[in-house]
Amino acid sequence: MGHFSPKAARLAAVIAWATVSMGASAESHTRHADAHIHGEGGLNFAIEGNQIYLELKTPGFDILGFETITTEEQHHKLEEAYKQLGSADLWRFTPAASCKLVEAKIPGAENGHAETHNEHGHDEHHAEKHDEHEHDEHHAQKPDEHDESQHMDIEATYVYQCSDIKKLNSLGTTFFTTFPNSEELKIQGIAPKGQVFSHLTQDKPEVRF
Q1: Average pLDDT for consecutive 10-residue bins of the chain (209 residues)?
Q2: pTM of the model
Q3: Domain boundaries, the chain
């Protein structure tokens, strides 16, 4: 799981361009994919030549069942989750297209750390003399109060090579059986027949295009 090839990087650029070009019709999908909602993640895909590029982003809770890593057991679960995310069988395509995983990249897998986002972290980092009263209020929450300013997202990108890309018309996954805390993945994609807006769920783990 090293650096992506120039081809894979170009496919990533296709996804980025496509997401922007979809405009108003995809506004709700894009906003949803950017939000951090437990049980709901996002999957972008693009098809170019004989390759498929996938880009996954999902809350850490959906993968791990928790979002704060403080124990050795939690670190171990994170490492196991990275291995599962890198499995070639996580994503499935039309059998006749004969697609195989050629590249997978999971940021943080090399050092065993997932990315944690803190909405206030930037200000705290650059303002060591931050108002102590606000600082205390931020850290003095009630025991049952959820801190929505800090959460963990897990991302992964994949490149699959297909022997007969013209026969590709479906994308399926074992994501929900592998990670049962996840309930839905919002799908945005670019296929030969046009743009794809859909979703994958535990009850419907396959989309056709």
Answers
A1: 52 55 43 63 95 96 92 95 96 98 90 51 41 44 43 93 97 97 95 92 96
A2: 0.71
A3: 6-125+149-208
